[in-house]
Each structure stands twice: as C-alpha cells, then as structure tokens.
Amino acid sequence: MFEWLPQPMQDEIEQLATRYGKPLRHVTDQAARYVYEANYLQGPLRRQAEVCMVVQRGANRLLTFRKPFYPQGAWRLLTGGVNPGEAILDALQREAEEETGHRLLVLRFLCAIEYQGAEQARFATFAFLLDGADRALSPIDQDEQVEAFREIEVADLPQIADFLAQIAPVYSSELETLWSEWGIFRAVVHRQVWERLQAQVQ
C-alpha cells in the first residue's frame, strides 16, 4: 500500500504512525473517475496526496466547512493538498493554519486512504485528529474560499457521507467535473474517520 508514492513520503507515513498511532488503512476504487480527472490529468507536477484535518472542537464535536459554490446543504471536513516534495506533516500544519488561522496540535493519525483510478491513477488522503478547542476560527488564505464553519457531532459523519455520495450529477465549472463524482470522493474520508473514531471509543 502506497508503494507508488515517493520513498520519502512512504517513510514519513511509517514515522507518523509511530508518533501519532497506527492509522486505519483503506483502499477503494469508488472515486476512480474523480481521481483520474482531478489528479492524473494534471501533468507531472500533480498532487498525489492530501491531508484531512479532523478538527476537534470539544467532546465528540468536529469542525466542518463549506465554500460559496458548493451544492446547497453540502458541508465537509477540512482538507488540503500535499504539494510535490512537501512533507505530510508540513502540509497538515500549513493547511490547518491557512484554513483556521492556527497551527493546531496533532492528536492522532486516524486514516490512510488509497484511491485507485483509471490508467493506474492513484491518490491518497491522510486524516489526522487535531485539537481545535477554544480557538477562534479565522482563515488567513482567502483562496481557500471558506464561506462558513459548522460544528457537528461525531455521530453526524455517516449522514454527511451519505449526503455527499448522493449529490446530483450536475457539472461544476469550478471543479471541471460532475458534482456527483466529487461527492463520492469526499464521502469516503468521512466514513473512514467515523469508523476510526468509533473504534477508539469501544
């Protein structure tokens, strides 16, 4: 798993697992079309991975957000791309600060997800639990287009995943793909984070 990633990134995954706990590992082809269109077709400098920031806002409460062009009712966990040559932890800290205004304490390495697409296209999402309690939220990167934040219960994650997975197949000029493909892709990490958090409390 992840043998297609650069060796330094593979090594960092193992180091992060030792430091922050072994993540739940998951492989899926559910988002094959989105992975192919949004990543594989972007040329040699395309991003191969992203981080998902599962920001804890108190006991059993997590942070979600939306952008102004999202379909009505669509909220999701925060994510950000790992730039070519960038360390996963560096990307996590950079993206957290850009989207919340703070460098947040990493609590747990929750999930490591591999998406398989057409033509051997692959992509990875690494989800981490971050401590965002008692922090005023103020995005510092306006390009992120954060319209609003909303706190949810951990138990709401499956419902959010179901909503994202059932978005209508309408073309998005912002994403240059169908909203349904984006929604299927985004639903995966919400289900895996919920499964991981459920396992922690059992």
Largest sheet: 7 strands, mixed
* Structural class by sheet pairing and helices: alpha+beta
Shape: globular
Nearest-integer average pLDDT = 91
- Give the uncertain stretches in residue-range form: none
* Total helical segments: 5
Give the number of DSSP strands.
Answer: 9
How would you characterize the overall build of this protein?
This protein starts with 6 loop residues before the first helix and ends with a helix. The protein has helices spanning 7-20, 32-38, 88-100, 157-165, 179-201, and strands at residues 24-28, 49-58, 61-66, 78-82, 105-116, 122-131, 148-153, 171-172, 177-178. Helix 2 (32-38) packs across helix 5 and helix 4 runs antiparallel to helix 5. It contains 5 helices and 9 strands; from the N terminus they run H-E-H-E-E-E-H-E-E-E-H-E-E-H. The strands form 2 sheets. Strands 1, 2, 3, 4, 5, 6 and 7 form a 7-stranded mixed beta sheet that branches. Strands 8-9 form a two-stranded antiparallel ribbon. Helices cover 33% and strands 29% of the residues.
Short description:
The chain is 33% helix and 29% strand. The protein is built from 5 helices and 9 strands, in the order αβαβββαβββαββα.
